[in-house]
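Sequence only, no structure available. Ideas?
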Amino acid sequence: MDVTLRPFEDDDLPRLRRWLAADHVRPWFEQPEDWMAEVEGRHGEYAWISHFVIEADGDPAGFCQLYPFSASGEDWNGALPVEGTYSLDYLLGEPTLLRRGIARAALSQLIGLIAAEPDAERIIVQPDRENVASRGLLRALGFAYDEADDLFAMDV
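Reply:
I predicted one. Tokens follow.
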């Protein structure tokens, strides 16, 4: 299956809203209105986040984003430095496309985009403890789990 990332567009808003409400996504993406506000503000207040649609064989399959952690105002980085740190989020919205390698291919591309950023030194991700699939995927892609800080990290 050919997996690509393309920039998020206004036409994708209804689809993302539907994905965020899906039974297999909702437990991991709480406050869907916050996620929608971020993508709706991607040309203004949230321009520091790069939003993408994951496509599988040319059809929308999911959503992902990357951002410099220092711009987020978040504080779950543990002992890792904020500068040079990026983070990402992703979801596969179409349930028929789960467990087909699409998320792995999309995250590999997202990691490549982050690694190309001149200031990128590491990526951190903090999936929910019960999100076994996401945690397993991160490990498979080379992220190391930092138990003390309860996050996954990868040097780039």
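The first helix runs from residue 13 to 21.
Hope that gets you unstuck.
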